[in-house]
Amino acid sequence: MEPRAGVSKQDIREQIWGYMESQNLADFPRPVHHRIPNFKSKKTLLVPTPRLRTGLFNKITPPPGATKDILRKCATSQGVRNYSVPIGLDSRVLVDLVVVGSVAVSEKGWRIGKGEGYADLEYAMMVSMGAVSKETPVVTIVHDCQVVDIPEELVEEHDITVDYILTPTRVIAT
């Protein structure tokens, strides 16, 4: 499932989305086209404020005694709305680890998102507010089929790269 020479980022996105749909690898929401694909994994994820609507960070605070269903909901956009408090850009917050979604990623750490630039913008905002540094690890969690060769000419100066790729079967240091 390797991309061919002369492909575009959108070609790679379409290839990954099509493969994940055809192999029934994706979890809700479906279809995965134009999304960062979800799939079942035994990893815990924390998410930024959806689409930067109310700021960069939200502190999710589940209610006391939250059920497993409520905890799952906390990681959704509805959960962020219902169970979180916004953290302002002027806050003195230090991020220990950045987890970024990807449609495709190479073993060199080059990633392709869904094409809207939010991950790159969020990372730039974290750098500008001093929340992350060059030493802060950047991780992506993807299905094995999403690890592909990405031509170097597709990588742009503003594109965030990842230090580690976690799949259901591997941990790849880039």
Automatic annotation (TrEMBL):
The keyword RNA-binding applies. InterPro entries: FTHF_cligase (IPR002698), FTHF_cligase-like_sf (IPR024185), NagB/RpiA_transferase-like (IPR037171). Signal peptide: none annotated. Pfam families: 5-FTHF_cyc-lig (PF01812). It comes from the Eukaryota. Keywords: RNA-binding. The keyword Glycoprotein does not apply. GO terms for molecular function: RNA binding. This is Methenyltetrahydrofolate synthase domain-containing protein. The gene is MTHFSD.
